[in-house]
Amino acid sequence: MKCLLAAMLVVAGHFVGVAQRRPHAAFIPPGSYPEQTRNPTLRYEPGGQPGSYRGLDGHWHPVQIAGWLPDRVYLNESGNYYRAFSPEEMTAFVDFSADTVVTVAGVAPGKLGNNQLTAFGRQLFRGGGVQLVDVNDQATSLIGILFQPHRLFIRQNADGWVLLPKQKAALQQLLVTMLADDAALVAELQAKRIGRWQVQRVLVRYADFRTTRFLQSAAQPRP
Prior knowledge:
- By secondary structure, this protein is of the alpha+beta class.
- Helix 3 packs antiparallel against helix 4.
């Protein structure tokens, strides 16, 4: 059994190494390629699904979606040919699985990977003025699910995005500062450090605290 497990880990490590050596091609802006060549931003996909996107004007538009990566999403209005749109061309979209994907921008250089200035990220949580987003390639296999790196970004209100630290001490300090108005939660965070996989649970509790405080304030008699 131990030998089998070791062999599986070796094989998984090989495929992960290959995947890391073969990153997906960067987004190609429309009009940046010779006119006589095939449009590299187009993708033939007969199995697209309905969704919607929010444009730079703030309005939502119905659309067909045929998959996405951190640097592009494939959209069309009809037919089987989809064009790649970059995160700079929209602020969010909702895919056919009802997940919300938002544009992550204004991040320190090098934090998004692949020299990207903006990227699409799956929204993991939003509430209490806090937003948590996961920026990573969609996993297409069990190996991808187990080994693909996740870059988690958090922001409060309209502040800039911050990369969630992997080190527990740095993560603790970030959360204590960001959630400082919840004294009980801060005391627990200071007493016991948590890992990144527990952050979403902490944010749910913080959002409940903010909601309760708002309701209590609204119930107070007005002078």
